[in-house]
Amino acid sequence: MAEFPFELLIDGVSLGKGSESVLCNRCLRTIPGRREVYDGVWGGRSVVVKVFSRGIGAAGRLRKELDGLRRLEACGVNTPRLLFYGKTPDGRLAAVTEKIVDSPTIIDAFSKAGTKSEKMDLLVRLCPELAGQHIKGVLQKDLHLGNFLMDEKKTYALDPGQMRFLGHAVGRAASISQLALLTRSLPADDTESVSRLAREYFAARGWSFEKTDDAQLRKQMALHTKRVMTRQLRKCMRTSKRTLRIKAGRHRAVFDRAFCRGAQPQDFLEQIDDLMDKGRILKAGNTCHVSRLTWNGRDVVVKRYNHKGFFHSLRHTIKGSRARHGWRSAHRLGVLQIATAKPVAYIEEIKGLLLWKSYLVTEYVEGRQLNSFLRNPGVSDERRSAAIRRVLDMLGSLQDNGITHSDLKHSNILITDHGPALIDLDAMQTHNVSWMGRRQGRKYVERFKKSLEDAPSR
């Protein structure tokens, strides 16, 4: 990729006057094998440039983009205006649209919102826009907050190539399915906010929100979560826009791209044992070794699962390393919005055909172990009760999703400024049979409650 800024020449087919020069200042988004999106300047005005990758389907993707922009404009949905389209000198197709200046995507505004109320205000404001699109027969196949821009007065729809135009208003069932995608921005257990959002949308459609609608909404939310989970667990094991899978010598690994940005992940692989020895040793056991260290400016915890003999290695070669399992488990909890230490890498060391050692790297979480927090004389009874209640809510979320931690002791629950967080996920189990998961979950919750009763007083 060229260094920024760079000049991109586009033969403006729609302008009919030869090549136009666009100065590309930065990359906004890349979808490998499909397109790149740049922030640029053309003729003194701010623009957004979509450059479609060469290959089968490129012309069809451009055609969908152009057709979508025209249809949105025709039905009165706010969207950035098409300026021109054409071909780059290397044969790629490109479309140039106006840039809505000083208008963040709703997902950016949502992530920067400081309070729950501010976040809800953004979603409530979006409801009439989504309802308006549905009334006009516009259905987003990939609905998420990143597909909307917002300024002080208007909301704009993005990514028209991923929209369907039905020619009639979107029906109740499909509307509820879309609304369920929107509610994924809220905690799953925040039933009050989910219901408020649904009522806002239904009011914009002129409908009443019935109990049957609420039941259907909850069902669709569960289905969407399951789909997102399946997709996320696949993506976190391969190279994607967020992760990087590499093989280097006897190591194979997956890194979070943000963790190794500006550095070489191979350097981390080669130095990892030395870095652990020089870091702050948190645990030095026969089975695993845990160290807190800093790499590439990131404060992380590395857990190494040691080699314990031929049959031990053979077993984990067949069923997968504990680091790999912990990596997937952390991503699973991330989808479910259950707090845990963010995973930034997992590494496996291979000798011959056998898995020899594995490493799980997570961000360091500032917090106190639950047992230490509860025994701290400086913690008020009110804070103590609130923490216990939030831990029980977290365990309830695990139970509802058929998950058991399998090593649920107080030292594996951290109390942070943002609430409780689970750590040590390498033994976590997901039960495909729902009643079994609920039964196991109840056992863990009862055992946890008993551990609170048996805990020494302050």
Q: What would your notes on this structure say?
A:
This protein is an alpha+beta fold and 458 residues long. It has 4 domains: 6-98, Phosphorylase Kinase, domain 1 (2-Layer Sandwich); 106-235, Transferase(Phosphotransferase), domain 1 (Orthogonal Bundle), CATH 1.10.510; 243-363, Phosphorylase Kinase, domain 1, CATH 3.30.200; 368-454, Transferase(Phosphotransferase), domain 1 (Orthogonal Bundle). 39% of the residues lie in helices and 28% in strands. The chain is built from 12 helices and 22 strands. The chain has a 7-stranded antiparallel β-sheet, sandwiched between helices. Strand 5 (82-87) and strand 6 (93-98) form a beta hairpin. Helix 3 (116-135) packs parallel to helix 5, helix 4 (172-182) packs across helix 6 (211-235) and helix 11 (381-400) runs antiparallel to helix 12 (434-454). The radius of gyration is 25 Å and the shape is globular. It starts with 5 loop residues before the first strand and ends with a helix. The relative contact order is 0.06. The model has no long low-confidence stretch (mean pLDDT 90).
Topology record:
Layout: E1 6-12, E2 19-31, E3 35-42, E4 45-52, H1 58-74, E5 82-87, E6 93-98, H2 106-112, H3 116-135, E7 138-140, E8 148-150, E9 155-157, E10 163-165, H4 172-182, H5 191-205, H6 211-235, E11 243-248, E12 251-256, H7 265-278, E13 280-284, E14 288-295, E15 298-305, H8 310-319, H9 322-335, E16 343-351, E17 354-363, E18 368-369, H10 370-375, H11 381-400, E19 403-404, E20 413-416, E21 419-422, E22 429-430, H12 434-454
